[in-house]
Amino acid sequence: VRDSVCVAPGACVDMGILAATHMDEKPFMLMPGDGIVGLGLEALAAGPLYSFLGRLFKGSRNVRPEFGIALGAELGEIHFGGHDGVPLAAPLQWFPVDHPEQGYWQVSIRAVRVGNETVHACEKGCHGIVDTGVSSLGVQASYLPSLSKALGVVQSREGGCQGPDLTLELGGMALTLPAEAYADSDCRLLLGSLDLEEPEFVGVFALGAAVLRHYYAAFDWEQQRLAFAPLKAGGVQAVARPGSEESSVIVV
After folding, report:
1. 153 exposure class (CB count in 10 Å sphere: 0-12, 13-18, 19+)
2. N or C: which end of the chain has fewer CB within 10 A?
């Protein structure tokens, strides 16, 4: 199917859309929308015509080829065209996309630490793939037992959960998650198992909502790089309404 897709006035693209004639009830029946918009690099699309971001940035007026994602406890935002006004607690730190030919927004991870202990030194390489479809933190199945054992979350006297910080070292910056980011109210670990074949995939982590509720993620389509910055306390706030005259940034 070929149609025009708009995210705001002046930000419309003509593109190809893959239509499904049948969808499984799980998980699609529970989803609030009728489809999925892919935000990956062009290599993941069925072709250039089907790449939403590729068509958007090439065909829109005055939209810088960058976007960013931030999630709150109950809402989230996608910023197309820049990052002005995002409540950041520190400047964005940029990293090259690792293996862009695979189509994923992924970054190289230098080491995985729990507290002051290095659980995985990533000698064979580790990779963090930003995925808004993952509600927690995805961990490659072969890495999951040792990481789960090291975290050792327990209930505190105050009723919350106590546990060491989980840190993903990127080189020049670290993504650090407190216990409440990787454990639920009953102190059960919120780590999803990624059943990926080795050695084709080694040391893969899916950076889902657990990370995006604490860090803003920015993506540069043209330069094939991505960035992270911690969000200020208070979380996600609207910057400008889609298509407003006050900002060239489109917020959805």
Report:
1. buried
2. N
